[in-house]
Amino acid sequence: MCLGIPAKIVKIDERQIADIEIGGIVRKASLQLVPEAKVGDYVIAHAGFAIQILDEKEAQETLKLLEAFSEIPE
After folding, report:
1. How far apart are CA 27 and CA 65, in angstroms?
2. Could you give all domains of the chain from N- to C-terminal order, each with its CATH number?
3. Which of 7, 16, 50, 56 is the residue whose CA sits 20 to 30 A from 23?
4. How sure is the predictor about 4, in pLDDT bands with cuts at 50, 70 and 90?
């Protein structure tokens, strides 16, 4: 199973490579699949690519769910 994570675009370079922020950590992701994405947008990030643009409300709800999963005892 694959999991895409909501991330916020904080910077985009001239090659369409974005700095995306996930839980305070900044990673790189290609915007080749969503060239219309812009700084401030939330995207689903998977395997180094932004694969879909998300509404901010939807992104925040998903991030809250992921955080709740991390708090479940094993």
Report:
1. 21
2. 5-70 (2.30.30.140)
3. 16
4. confident
